[in-house]
Every structure is written in C-alpha cells, then in structure tokens.
Specification:
Elements lengths: L9 E7 L6 H15 L3 E7 L6 H11 L3 E6 L5 H9 L6 E4 L11 H7 L5 E6 L6 H18 L11 E4 H8 L8 H8 L3 E6 L13 H15 L2 H30 L8 H33 L7 E5 L12
Parallel strand pairs: 1-2, 1-4, 2-3, 5-7
Antiparallel strand pairs: 3-8, 4-6, 5-6
Helix pairs in contact: 5-8, 9-10
Length: 323
C-alpha cells in the first residue's frame, strides 16, 4: 500500500470496459511486479463508460493505494480514445499500455523494459495469439492498411501491449483527431520501434469487446483518416474513364470514316461526352477532397472525449493544475 504519491518512473494506462471481474487482479499483479522490481509507478485506469461496476472496484482499490488513479468518460468512446485520454495524465518517464483482460500478463512488462534499449517504443508481440479467428483476420486487415499508409519498419506489428517513452507519449497526447488509431499515431511520431516477443494467454472471462462490425469500422476509419487511397482510387478511375472515352471516340471516328458504318445521330457523341466529363468530375472531386483533407488536418480541434470524473493524488488536487 502507498500513503503518498511520488514521482513515478512508469505510468500504466489501462482502458477499462466490462472488466469488473478482472481489473482487481490486473491492478494487483501490476502493483506486485513494480514493487518487486523497485520502480516507482502509478496506474491510470480509464473507465470508458463501462456498463458494469468496474469504476466502483477501482475506487475501492484506490482507497488503499493512491497510486491507482481513475478517469471516467461520460460515454463509450472506444479503446484508442480511452488510451489517449490516459496518456494525457502520464507523469512517468515511460508509459505502459495494456488491456484489462489479463491476456498480456503484467509480469511480461519486464521483457518490454529489457527490450526497449535506445528505441522510443517497444511493442509486445504475442508469441502465439489467443484471439478468435475473426479477430486475427480483422487485425491483419487493419495492420495491412497501416503498412500501406505509413510504410513502417520491416517486421512491424501492432499490439495494445506497449512501452513508450515520455517524449513520444507527450506528442501522442497532443493529437486531436476525433478518430485516433494508436498504431498510426505512433508511426507518425517515431520510427524507432522494436518488437519484443511476449506471452499471450487465453481470455479468462467473457469475450472480446471487438466484434466484426467494430473491426470493419476501424478499418474504414483508417482508410479515410490515415490514407489517401480512396481519393487516389477516385482519381485513377476518373482518369481511366476519361481516357477510355477519348479512345472510344477515336474508335467511332475510324469506323465511320474507314468502314462507313452508320450510327443513330448523336448517340456516339452523347456516350463519349457523358463518360469523358464524368471522368473529369471524378478527378475534380478528388482534387477538392485532397484540399479538404489538408484543411481538416490543419484545423481539427474537436474534443475527443468528455470526462465525467478524475481521481488523482489525494482526490483534492487537479492533475492539470487548474485553480
């Protein structure tokens, strides 16, 4: 137990949703690990408007140990925004991000600490993933989009179990996109990333909060917010359509002049005009879309989340220092 809050070396950020049955053990094992290792630490739990009583469980633990902090969202925002919320409260030299389901044993944090070296981020890659097949398929799709958008270092893989230096954490916490994806944000900040093999255990209780619909939604947000692929496809489609329209017009002229073929008056020219200008419209829309994307990138300042409560320090201090 801890009666006072000291400056931590490590801040563990845990997004919480439907985890009332596991969060106490997660916190207990994280605490045991860092106490045994002799590292000052704190745990920042983010209650993502969970329908169970996970917040009550965390607050009871907090009564005994003020190193355990709680942030509560007004509504459910998802895992990625929950982790970013927690990162804005990181005080340690390093941040550890991990899930609340014990599939990544807290004791494996030591492997991340040993493996980070001079890198900015150490990602714990499961030696043998214990997810459902649809979850693995969705993860592979998302990772493919990330690789397409960011051209990450060879061998890059994504995982929610990470050790991140404070300098990178601060940059990530300043990101204001309404549709954050942590892997993409990390790659936009640094390429000094190492992979560390870690143990991955089967889920003990319940099932993953990610379903097929959420995975498809995540992949769609990635495509639209972090890549220009849809815009590029529109551009290429428009150029190809305009080119084929011109080629078709040449073909019609050749048939009419050389082979003396006759068509209904106006039919070829109407088809060519529709196809040609339709293609130009696609190209024009793509160019406009490029400008809109850049404007949004420059001006986006929408709030990612709305907080319901914060429990830090002795519960009377404002972690942001507001008066």
């Amino acid at each position: 137990m801890s009666e006072m809050v000291v400056q931590p070396d490590f801040t563990v950020v845990i997004p919480c949703y439907n985890s009332a049955s596991t969060i106490a053990e997660v916190i207990s094992r994280v605490t045991e690990f860092f106490d045994a290792a002799g590292h000052p630490f704190e745990i920042v739990c983010v209650d993502d408007a969970s329908p169970d009583d996970v917040a009550d469980v965390i607050l009871k633990i907090r009564e005994r140990d003020k190193r355990v902090c709680l942030i509560r969202h007004h509504r459910n925002y998802g895992q990625h925004r929950s982790v970013l919320t927690g990162m804005r409260y990181v005080r340690g030299k390093f941040a550890v991000t991990m899930d609340d389901d014990l599939q990544n044993p807290p004791e494996e944090i030591q492997k991340l600490i040993d493996g980070i070296g001079d890198a900015d981020v150490a990602i714990g890659m499961p030696e043998n993933k214990q997810h459902a097949s649809y979850r693995n398929l969705g993860s592979n799709l998302v990772n493919g989009i990330v690789k397409l958008a960011f051209k990450p270092p060879p061998g890059y893989g994504a995982s929610s179990f990470r050790l991140i230096r404070r300098t990178v954490v601060d940059q990530m916490a300043n990101m204001r996109t309404v549709y954050p994806h942590l892997g993409s944000i990390i790659l936009s900040v640094t390429r000094r990333i190492v992979q560390v093999d870690v143990r991955h255990e089967p889920r003990r209780v319940g099932r993953s909060n990610y379903n097929v619909r959420k995975l498809i939604s995540l992949a769609g947000n990635l495509l639209i917010n972090y890549t220009k692929l849809p815009m590029r496809v529109m551009t290429l489609t428009g150029l190809a359509t305009a080119f084929l329209a011109l080629a078709f017009s040449v073909y019609i002229i050749v048939l009419k002049v050389v082979e003396q073929q006759h068509y209904d008056a106006g039919w070829p020219s109407v088809i060519v005009a529709i196809a040609f200008f339709g293609g130009l419209n696609l190209v024009s829309l793509s160019v406009i879309g490029e400008y809109i994307i850049r404007l949004l990138s420059e001006t986006s300042g929408a709030s990612q989340v709305v907080l319901r409560a914060e429990h830090f320090g002795d519960d009377s201090e404002d972690p942001h220092g507001a008066s």
